[in-house]
Each structure stands twice: as structure tokens, then as C-alpha cells.
Amino acid sequence: MDAFIHQVLAGLATGGIYASLALALVMIYQATHLVNFAQGEMAMFATYIAWALINIGIPQLGIPPLPYWQAFFVTVVSAFVLGVLIERVVIRPVENAPVLAVVVVFIALLVILNSVTGWMFTYTIKTFPSPFPSEIGFGRFMSPHEVGAIGVTMVVLVLLYLFFRFTPLGLAMRAAAQNPESSRLVGIRVGWMLALGWGLAAAIGGIAGMMVAPIVYLDPNMMGGVLLYAFAAALVGGIDSPGGAVFGGFLVGVLENVLGAFVIGNELKLAVALVLIIGVLTVRPSGIFGKVHVTRV
Amino acid sequence: MAFLEAKSLHASYGQTRVLHGISFAMEEGTITALLGANGAGKTTTLRALCGMVKTEGEIRFGGERLDGRATEDIVRLGIAHVPDGRGTFVNLTTEENLRLGAYTRKDRAAVEADLQRIYGYFPRLKERRTQQAGTLSGGEQQMLAVSRALMLRPKLMLLDEPSFGLAPLIVRELFAILRTVNEREHVSMLVVEQNAAMALNLSDHAYLIETGRVVLSGTADEIKKNDAVRRSYLGY
């Protein structure tokens, strides 16, 4: 029984990370109606920024290695700026292009970020520190990092909820995503709202990357598996439902852990994500919380 | 100098020309109607004023050029557009829709007061405050669209077919409120309508548009008495 509880709790910890990344996917999906395949690599790149800040600093600017939490905040801000830049420079020109063209751009982004990281930092696997002191573990059930990661994820989710629900800017972003024309008519600068959405998604992804890196270790391909789980999470919850993505993230995390430990073994864990994706797409394409879209023909 | 003036507006969708040099002007504080049949170019004219279609020609509002400006900037000059199809944010609540109307305003206390004032005009919207706007009836959504525009505290309101798809009783109610807003708050209005009789009762001046050109203009009373208009548009 202890082992089972342990697996469920550990699943919640990684599930939180999947939930964050799934939420980033949903945010971009709502604005563009496309799934950003480069979301994982953007997160990975941000995590490398954090690694560099913690271990090397920025010698060119005379900045010494930073303590973890300073590096954390600098990374979140850099990821945000990077996300905004990517939208303005790369995505904006293909705004009205056919779907496949945009998908190719997403894949190009994925490959470019992956190889640039490899070129800058080499493909050697690195360890990434966890900021959480060993006192906050729940003894035999959860490691300190797992407890901390759940905490950080929860804070991020609550802040995002408050932002979108209660601030005028959050409202404007929701409006711009669902009805660009009406949004312009009330004076919202829709293009900037989309860029802001990319920035936020990139920042959330960066946090997810920093939380998952101590578990999976840092290498340019670290997010491949994580992104697959996040896809599964977003689909299970409903690709257009932020709340659903979060729920889906935790569900996928727990399922993956419990099934991996007791049923199918660790080697087939990733298959859980793929089975979920295929299952949802065939049985209930709109996910658990997603809206079923009906179109007149 | 006219409050709003358009000179030889041309507009096209792809290869199809829709406006062939429309010119009109309106005075501050008045309600002006653009009348015409389906496809005459009324909606396109309103969209041209808001920078939503590419146009040639000149548009002036209070002395400033509007043509070539972005929609978001035109809104900031105090022009609110109640679009064709109502433009409801269907997944947001009624109140969120209204608050979006005041997005460009910084005077928060006045925005709260305006919200209450609008609930005074349309008590139905107050009842449905927390309801998803997509679930409102057609009439309620039209009231919401007008209210959202009013939340801007506009100098000029552009109304695209406010009577479309509404029961006659609701149209009468809505037009009475538009009249009140115009008189009490001195909001100028440019109304596009297929329902010529309703529009002429509401407005001070009117222009008749046929296939992208102005073919007749005058005070509402003059237009009402015009034989051709009476036969083709008023039907008696």
C-alpha cells in the first residue's frame, strides 16, 4: 500500500509539470487553433538558460553565477521575452498561411532550438539542481523536490487563474483569442495579445522545464517525452479547455506512474501517453471538458 | 466642417468592387441613416469607416483623417461600431462583454457608473450579468452589442442593422433607447438599415445607397415623402 501511495504522489508531482506544459499548449491552441510542437524545446532552451545562469552566470556582462531563485526569475522573464520575440518574428508572418505551413514552422522551430542548444551547450547530459531543502519531504512518500514541484505548479496555476479571471489584460487576452474582430472594435491590440500569450506560454514552459530537469536530467532532448505526456494531458482534458488541461496533466502523471510501476513496467510508460492520445481521438475527440463543436454544412 | 465626412469612398473585396465612390457627411449630435437594399454596400461603408476594409478615398472625423488608420486607433478617437452579426464574445459573461467595451478607458470609477447606467437602460442584461453571452437571445445580444459600444462613451456610434432578426416589439424598445441616448448623451449615430420605415422614424437625415453609390439624400422627412422611396423601400 505504501508503494502505491508513493507512486500516486510521485505521479501528482510529475503530473503538475505535464499540467503546466499542457496549459501552455492550450493557451497557444486557443489563440491560433494549432498545437505548438516547439513548446517542449522552448521550455528546454529556457532550462538551459537557467543552468547557465546558475553555473556560469553571464561572463560577457560581468554577471557571476546566480543563486537558484534569482536565476529562476531571470529565466522566467527571458523565456517570456523569447516567446514574444518568436511570435513577432517567426509566427506573425505566417499568421494567414495554410495550416501545414504553420506546422512546418513549428517543427522548424523545434529542430532549430534543439540544435542551437546542442551547439551552445553540447549534448552531454547535465545534472540540474533542485532548490528545495531536504526538510520538506514527506518522509517515505515524497521526495523534497516532488513536494516543491507540486507547490510551484500550484502557485503558477493559481496566479494564471487570477490573471485571466480578474485583470482587464487577462480579459482582453481571452477576448482576443476568441473573437479577434470584435476585440479590435473595442480597441484591443490583438496582435500584441497573441504575442503576450506566446510569452506567457513560454514562461510557463520554462518553469515546467526547471521543475522537470532535476528528475529527467538536462539534455537537449529532455522534453521529448514530457511534451508527449503534455499532449496526452491536453487532449484528455480537452484541447480548448485550460482547466481540462490541468486535470489531464495530473491524471496522466498518476496513470503513467502507477501503470509503469505495477502493470506494464517502466519501459512501456511512454506508450501510456500514446494510447491515451489515440484513445481520446477515437472515442471522444473533444476530451473530457472540451466543447463539442458543431458546424452547419 | 462636418463632424463625419466621407469623400468618394471606393472599396473592394478581392476583384469585386463594392463601393463606387460614396460621399456623405453628418453633423454632430444627429442620427443619420444609410438606407438601401441587400448588397448595396451599407455594411461595407461602415467597415470602411472603421478601417476594417481597404479603401480609397478620404474619411474625416472631427477634422482628422481616418482612412489608413488601424481599427484599434479609430476606436480610441471615440467611434464605437455595433457590427453586423452583433460581435458577441460568446464564451464570456454578459458583464465581461460590457467591461470589454470600456477597455480603452482609464477612468475606472466612471466605468462602474456607466455599467450601472446601462443596466438601467437594459434591466434584462443586469439579470443575465453572470450568464455566458452566447446563451442570450438574439434581442438580448443586440442590446448587449449596443451597450458594449456605449461603454466606450463614444462620440459616434456606427450601428449595422440593429433591427436585424428582432421581433418588432423589441426593435421599438431598442430604437426608443437609441433615441434617448442620442438626446441625453449627445451621441451621434450612423445607422445602416434595411428596415427603411424604422430607420427614417429614428433618424434626422438619410442617404439612400444603391449598388455602391449615393442616389438620394436629405432630411428624414424629405426622404419619407419621396415617391420612389415610398414605393421601393416603404412599400405603400
Structure description:
The complex is a heterodimer of chains A (297) and B (236). Chain A has a domain at 19-127 and 134-223. Helix content of chain A is 72%, strand content 0%. Chain A contains 11 helices and no strands. Chain B has a single domain (4-234), classed as Rossmann fold. In chain B, the strands form 2 sheets. Chain B has a 6-stranded mixed β-sheet with strand order 6-7-8-3-9-10, with helices on both faces. In chain B, strands 2-1-4-5 form a 4-stranded antiparallel β-sheet, with helices on one face. Classes of the chains: A mainly alpha (297), B alpha/beta (236). Chains A and B meet through helix 6 and helix 7 of A and helix 2 and helix 3 of B.
Mean pLDDT of chain B: 91
Count of extended strands of chain A: 0
N to C succession of SSEs of chain A: HHHHHHHHHHH
The CATH class of chain B is identified as Alpha Beta
CATH architecture of chain B: 3-Layer(aba) Sandwich
> What portion of residues of chain B belong to β-strands?
25-35%
Strand-residue fraction of chain A?
under 5%
Which features does this protein show?
heterodimer, A: 297 residues, mainly alpha, 11 helices, B: 236 residues, alpha/beta, Rossmann fold, four-stranded antiparallel beta sheet, 27% strand
Note the topology.
The complex is a heterodimer of chains A (297) and B (236).
Chain A: H1 2-32, H2 39-55, H3 68-91, H4 99-121, H5 144-166, H6 168-178, H7 180-185, H8 190-216, H9 223-237, H10 242-262, H11 269-283
Helix pairs in contact in A: 1-5, 1-8, 1-9, 1-10, 2-3, 2-4, 2-8, 2-9, 3-8, 5-6, 5-8, 6-8, 9-10, 9-11, 10-11
Chain B: E1 4-13, E2 16-26, E3 31-35, H1 42-49, E4 55-61, E5 64-65, H2 71-76, E6 79-82, H3 94-101, H4 108-121, H5 123-127, H6 138-150, E7 156-160, H7 168-185, E8 188-193, H8 196-202, E9 205-210, E10 213-219, H9 220-225, H10 227-234
Parallel strand pairs in B: 3-8, 3-9, 6-7, 7-8
Antiparallel strand pairs in B: 1-2, 1-4, 4-5, 9-10
